[in-house]
Design brief:
Layout: H1 6-16, E1 20-24, H2 28-41, E2 45-50, H3 51-57, H4 59-72, E3 77-84, H5 87-96, E4 100-103, H6 110-125, E5 130-135, E6 139-142, E7 145-147, H7 157-167, E8 171-174, E9 179-180, H8 193-202, E10 208-210, H9 218-226, H10 239-245, E11 250-255, H11 257-273, H12 280-302
Parallel strand pairs: 1-2, 1-11, 2-3, 3-4, 4-5, 5-8, 6-9, 8-10, 10-11
Antiparallel strand pairs: 6-7
Helix pairs in contact: 2-4, 2-12, 5-6, 7-8, 9-11, 11-12
Length: 308
């Protein structure tokens, strides 16, 4: 099945009140676990690569893995760049065959973010590629994205409307309290749903995106710590808040940290409880299964199961 674009998928998600899962990929086992889950749940999905993921796995290898996924699963799959921080990175992914790119000018002043996003939009739209942008700044750490909590900036609803109108971006990642990484909240977890509702009111029927939305599932944190990890007081976005958010105009939810935790917890357990194991297949195979089961759970939570 050929790669899909997000336009029709978002339109359907907005009408029916669910969100698509956007899962970060770094190697073969991760992409297999995600695609196997989507096939079993009959769910459309985003396979997305960060700049760090592309550098680690090398673009040529990642593209072949995506080709294999498309050959083995009859599903709508969007190939997406996550956090492209400059025009050159976004252009390279458009030219390479991505059907969606995210340009992240959120660390820039508003006017500079508008200019960069508009430049990417113009280039991508001429080639049939859709563009996600970001306004506001999430705290936390993910690959080369690092923002101190004091520097986090929530999305201003009125600016969001102006930004979309001036850039023509197809979807917008908004900052309402989520954050990157495994340490999202020091106190009580809170998302600013009032702010989200204002953005939704000013941009009716417009696709919004949540970054930093992993739940940091306790079962994986506990298993990591049990078998030698030191994750401390890691906390994610409660699943009931994610379920509430996807009933709004949020129709794409990014998940990366939960994938990392699932694979790491599984590998740690096997290497500690079976110290004689040295065959990578013996610990990467179960890790792939752990990813699949976690992703299936997420697809049900987001409501996209059965929507392929």
């Amino acid at each position: 099945m050929p790669l899909a674009t997000s336009k029709d998928l978002f339109e359907k998600a907005l009408k029916q009140g669910y969100a698509l899962g956007a899962f970060n990929v770094n190697n073969m086992e991760i992409i297999q676990g995600i695609v196997d889950a989507a096939a079993e749940e009959r769910a459309p999905l985003f396979l997305q690569f960060s700049a760090g993921g592309r550098k680690y796995a090398r673009p040529e290898y990642l593209m072949k893995l995506v080709e294999a996924a498309l050959a083995t699963a009859d599903l709508p799959v969007v190939l997406h760049l996550d956090h492209g921080e400059d025009f050159e990175t976004c252009k390279a992914c458009v030219d390479q065959g991505f059907t969606s790119v995210m340009v992240d000018g959120s660390k820039m002043p508003f006017e500079e973010n508008v200019a960069l996003t508009k430049k990417v939009v113009d280039y991508a739209h001429e080639r049939g590629v859709v563009v996600e942008a970001e306004l506001g700044r999430l705290a936390g750490i993910e690959d080369n994205i690092s923002v101190e909590e004091k520097d986090a900036i929530f999305t201003v609803p009125e600016q969001a409307k102006e930004f979309v109108e001036r850039t023509g971006c197809n979807s917008l990642a908004v900052a309402i309290g989520t954050s990157h990484g495994a340490y999202k909240f020091k106190g009580e977890a809170m998302l600013d749903f009032e702010r989200l509702n204002k953005i939704e009111h000013l941009l009716p029927n417009y696709p919004l995106v949540l970054h930093g939305a992993s739940s940091v599932l306790k079962e994986f944190v506990d298993k990591c710590n049990k078998y030698g990890g030191h994750l401390g007081n890691s906390r994610g976005v409660p699943e009931e808040m994610i379920a509430r958010a996807v009933k709004t105009n949020v129709c794409k939810v990014n998940i990366d940290t939960d994938i990392r935790l699932a694979i790491t917890a599984s590998i740690r357990e096997i290497l500690v409880t079976q110290p004689e194991v040295f065959d990578p297949r013996k610990y990467l195979g179960p890790a792939r299964e752990a990813i699949k089961n976690m992703v299936r759970h997420k697809m049900r939570l987001l409501g996209c199961a059965g929507k392929a």
